[in-house]
Design a protein that fits this description.
single chain, mainly beta, seven-stranded mixed beta sheet, four-stranded antiparallel beta sheet, 0% helix
Length: 110
């Protein structure tokens, strides 16, 4: 049972980046899936959720810039991040219930 996140990297402000999180060992299609992030020196915070039925929710600071989606056939949840800002710099984690991925680092800097 695991979540494997990938896709992090370093980009400049205004650029885009996509994250993926592949799940194994769970009935993926029945799970609400979420992305969280933790910036250096700060607490982990919720970013976005997609429910098992496909409804999406976002924290205010990423609305209109980030898009969460899922592919149940591939047991994968995605986070497309556009118009990135330096304050989006963090380690991003995927999550469902008590299960967390290992995190992938996103750095936004000029």
């Amino acid at each position: 049972v695991q979540l494997q996140a990938s896709g992090g990297g370093s980009v400049q402000p205004g650029e885009s980046l996509g994250l993926s999180c592949a799940a194994s060992g769970i009935i993926f299609g029945l799970k609400d899936m979420g992305w969280y992030r933790q910036a250096p020196g700060k607490q982990r915070e919720w970013v976005a959720t997609i429910t098992s039925s496909g409804n999406t929710h976002y924290r205010d600071s990423v609305k209109g810039r980030f898009t969460i989606s899922r592919d149940n056939a591939k047991n994968t949840v995605y986070l497309q991040m556009n118009s990135l800002k330096p304050e989006d710099t963090a380690v991003y984690y995927c999550n469902t219930g008590m299960l967390w991925g290992q995190g992938t680092l996103v750095t936004v800097s000029s």
